[in-house]
Amino acid sequence: MPSSPRPDLAIASLLALLTHLLLLPHTPATAVEVCRAVTCPGSAFADQFLPPPQVQFPFRLRRQSSRCGYPGFELSCTPGGDALLRLPGSGEFIVKSITYSPTQSITLADPDGCLPGRLLGNFSLVGSAFRALVPQQFTLLNCSDGVDLSSLGMQAIPVPCLSGGNYTVMSLLTRFYGGDPYPCEAMATVTVPLPLQYWVDVEEVISLTWDVPDCGSCRRRGGECGYESANGTEVGCSNVPRAGLSRTAKYGVILGLGVPGLLGLIGLASFVFGKIKARGTPARPNVTDVSSLIASQSATISMGLDRVTIESYPKTQLGESRRLPKPNDTTCPICLGEYQPKETLRTIPECNHYFHVDCIDEWLRLNGTCPLCRNSPEDPS
Ligand SMILES: *[C@@H]1O[C@H](CO)[C@@H](O)[C@H](O)[C@H]1NC(C)=O
Ligand SMILES: *[C@@H]1O[C@H](CO)[C@@H](O)[C@H](O)[C@H]1NC(C)=O
Ligand SMILES: *[C@@H]1O[C@H](CO)[C@@H](O)[C@H](O)[C@H]1NC(C)=O
Ligand SMILES: *[C@@H]1O[C@H](CO)[C@@H](O)[C@H](O)[C@H]1NC(C)=O
Question: Which atom of ligand 2 is nearest to the CA of 169?
Answer without folding.
Answer: 13
